[in-house]
Specification:
Layout: H1 2-41, H2 45-53, H3 58-79, H4 85-96, H5 106-130, H6 136-151, H7 168-188, H8 194-207, H9 212-239, H10 243-256, H11 263-294, H12 298-312, H13 318-324, H14 329-337, H15 340-350, E1 353-354, E2 358-359, E3 372-376, E4 385-389, E5 393-400, E6 403-416, E7 419-424, E8 427-437, E9 440-452, E10 455-460, E11 463-465, H16 467-478, E12 481-482, E13 488-489
Antiparallel strand pairs: 1-2, 3-4, 3-13, 4-5, 5-6, 6-7, 6-12, 7-8, 8-9, 9-10, 10-11
């Protein structure tokens, strides 16, 4: 019995030793496998290789069983933005250093490099758009160097390009093309602005040479750029409250680009912007023109009103706006006539020249105090001039937002059409015709006769002419001459302003 128990004990011990050996034989490879992957992550490549070679390949066998999961795990860590690209890249490169693992990381590199490259592409496109072409240093460093030197198989700096299959770079370029095509589809569907798609295309075309798709888009976008620029210009005019200009630009673009590619992408936007500008202008321009009049920008206000006529028609009360640009001339002239003698004498004494020929300083107002008053719109600006005159002297007054002004004291004989016929220097042979516009007189024609040694010389506009030509031209004006109509005694001038 004692012997039997002894044998049982011996057998048990043997079994225990066998199980312990088996456990150690199983645990050690697991331990070494874990140590191997830790060495990979710490870039202890010699240690990692020694561990991989342990136990006659058993450790490698265990490592191989987990290798794909290990690569996928670390790739996903980056793809899910849990770790930096360089950390994942380092692990994959370290694996490529191990014997027997050549090319094992190609699929993972394809995914992480595609993801990283598209992130850089997005950043570059955003930078290109914001900076109207991108920062040179950004493009050179982060696009050119990172792409050509890191992702392109033909670069000497590419990590382990010799380990990967020949179509690796093609796959990366195809991913870029697919990404750009998706963006372009969004643009064509009206979901992406021109400035953004142009940035994507230009960056791809200039800095990613493998992207064939981008090459075909450059020319397609040329006309779109002009159309987008037209729309942007109209939008800027709208933002500046220049609604008439906005409408004009929209109309020009709608007509000029109606047969161009991608016009439909902008037609609705142009129509909508025009409609918005049209409605905004209806209420805006009355205040705007009032402001321009207050700032004494009368000519600009009138020009603006003219442009409104062509666009708004009956949708804006043009007559009401035009009235804003016309001073209350009746009130101004009425106030002037209350004590016109003193005011007229002072204005003439201050000196006013008409057509550089008639100087009011040469006139004795007391000797030529006006007897008659009339109003006549000499220049057709809807504000008639006040004409004060006696038998031979005409004073022409003009009303504007600053008050009443003397435009000239002229020795006259009447009007010929729209031209004032005058004589100068007291010589009835010196005849002038003057034209008037916006408060200014200009010389239209002159007739003069000189005499020396009993011989007369005839001049028309400063040039010698024959007596026949002189007489013919002079008579053609004098024969049409008329006097001022509807004049009243100056004391009754108030009746003209009722």
């Amino acid at each position: 019995m004692k012997k039997k128990w002894k044998n049982i004990l011996i057998v048990s011990l043997i079994l225990i030793f066998i199980e312990a050996g088996a456990a150690i034989g199983y645990a050690l490879p697991i331990y070494y496998k874990t140590a191997f992957f830790n060495a990979i992550e710490e870039t202890k490549l010699d240690t990692a290789q020694e561990l991989l070679n342990k136990d006659f390949g058993i450790v490698k066998l265990y490592a191989d069983m987990d290798l794909d999961d290990y690569i996928v795990y670390h790739s996903n860590q980056y793809l899910e933005d849990q770790v930096a690209y360089e950390d994942t890249k380092t692990i994959l490169i370290n694996l490529e250093h191990m014997d027997g693992y050549k090319g094992k990381t190609e699929a993972a590199f394809g995914k992480i490099n595609e993801y990283e490259l598209l992130k850089i592409y997005e950043d570059a496109a955003r930078d290109y758009e914001v900076n109207s072409g991108g920062r040179t240093d950004y493009v050179n460093e982060d696009i050119h160097l990172n792409y050509v030197n890191t992702y392109h198989c033909e670069s000497n700096l590419f990590n382990y390009y010799e380990n990967f299959s020949a179509d690796y770079c093609t796959k990366i370029a195809d991913a870029m093309d697919a990404y750009l095509e998706k963006k372009f589809d969004a643009f064509q569907n009206g979901e992406l602005e021109y400035s953004k798609i142009n940035a994507y295309v230009q960056v791809a075309y200039q800095y990613f040479p493998e992207t064939e798709y981008a090459k075909g888009l450059v020319s397609q976008l040329m006309n779109v750029g002009a159309l987008d620029s037209a729309f942007s210009g109209a939008q800027k005019s709208f933002d500046a409250q220049e609604y008439v200009e906005c409408i004009r630009q929209c109309d020009t673009a709608l007509e000029s680009y109606k047969n161009e590619s991608y016009f439909e992408l902008y037609k609705d936007k142009l129509d909508a912007l025009r409609a918005e500008a049209y409605e905004a202008g209806k209420t805006f321009y009355k205040d705007k023109i009032s402001e321009m009049v207050d700032d004494e920008k009368i000519d600009e206000a009138k020009a603006l009103i003219d442009s409104l006529k062509n666009i708004y028609g009956k949708d804006i009360n043009i007559a009401e706006l035009e009235a804003l640009t016309v001073p209350d001339w009746k009130k101004l002239y009425k106030g002037f006539m209350a004590d016109y003698k003193e005011k007229l004498a002072k204005m003439a004494g201050d000196g006013v020249k008409a057509a550089d020929t008639f100087d009011s300083k040469d006139v004795n107002v007391e000797e030529h105090m006006p007897l008659t008053a009339a109003v006549k719109d000499l220049d057709g600006d809807e504000v008639p001039e006040l004409l004060l005159y006696d038998q031979s002297m005409l004073y022409v007054m003009r009303a504007d937002f600053d008050g009443v002004h003397l435009t000239g004291a002229i020795t006259y004989t009447g009007f010929s059409g729209e031209k004032l016929v005058a004589i100068g220097g007291g010589d009835v042979e010196d005849i002038f015709t003057l034209i008037y516009d916006d408060g200014e007189w200009a010389l239209d024609a002159s007739f003069k006769i000189t005499e020396a040694d009993g011989e007369k010389t005839y001049y028309y506009n400063g040039d010698k002419v024959t007596e026949e030509a002189y007489t013919e031209k002079k008579n053609s004006i004098l024969d049409k001459r008329t006097n001022i109509e509807d004049g009243v005694p100056v004391d009754d001038a108030a009746a003209l302003f009722e």
